[in-house]
Amino acid sequence: MEGHQRPVLQRILPTLDSSFLLKHYPDPTVRGDKVPNYHYHPELELVFVNGGNGRRHVGSHVSYFDDGELILIGSNLPHWGFTDRNTGNRAETVVQFSPNFPTPDFRALSEFSQINNLLERAKNGISFTGRTKEVEGRRLERMVELDPLGRLLLLLDVLRELSESEEYESLNADGVHIEIATHGYERFNNVQQFISDNFRRDLAVAEAASVAAMTVPAFCRYFKKVTGKTFVTYLTNFRIVYACKLLSDEHSTIAEVAFDCGFNSLSQFNRSFKKVTERTPTEYRLDLRKTVGGNLPSG
């Protein structure tokens, strides 16, 4: 099941002639090799989905888009791919760039301050709407026709326009934001796998520390440094991400969702869910019903 999978580190290899990576996917009905998966990467990601309908699953946020999508995702923010054979989109364009793009010295210029603010806000995930989505999305598509310098200049201008736009929604999806040094990926992924396999039951910090081959105090310091959260808070957010998946897709009552996600009581689940998503599970499900017109269970 999708919500039960851990985010996988995606290694993005730079090209020799560019400071960022540009990908363009044509009609997904003729591409059988593009399968969405739950992943994260240090690079920021700007995605334009040309037409179609689909789902946003970014960090702890799950919602739906209609008639395409333009979304900016921050560094190491876990997310699912946005298109597949069923999305009905005409094409998808993806731009991935380093957190220091284009260079640290360039980022330090006062003229870049507004774009710096945009990239900082991207830690939560930003979905653009209206004319911004339409115009800037089309400009991203044009990048595939340009030479490397033309692509760079156009990307910088697109980021400038996005930084000035008021047509956007902050997804508030940074609940599982990951900050980790390259050398620690294997250890952290082992802990992630342990959480993914066992989050439905009570988990003690000592068990996770054992998986990481660390003492409990050392593990707590390491985990807080890597994720910015305590183990308990991170585990709770992980469970909430899974709950969002069940609330959107499964024909289960809210009480069944709560216990299936590892919460010991419905009241504990309701409190935790509202703290992370700023909505109760019932409000979240009602909002999804309004968005997708589905037949989700009410209780």
UniProtKB/TrEMBL annotation:
Domain HTH araC/xylS-type: 189-287
Source organism, top-level taxon: Bacteria
UniProt keyword Metal-binding, yes or no: no
InterPro entries the record matches: Homeodomain-like_sf, HTH_AraC, HTH_AraC-typ_CS, RmlC-like_jellyroll, RmlC_Cupin_sf, Tscrpt_reg_AraC-type_HTH
DNA-binding listed as a keyword: yes
SMART domains xrefs: HTH_ARAC (SM00342)
Key words, A-Z: DNA-binding, Transcription, Transcription regulation
A Pfam short name: HTH_18
Gene3D superfamilies: Homeodomain-like, Jelly Rolls
Record PANTHER family: ARAC-FAMILY TRANSCRIPTIONAL REGULATOR, TRANSCRIPTIONAL REGULATOR MTLR
The protein's name: AraC-like DNA-binding protein
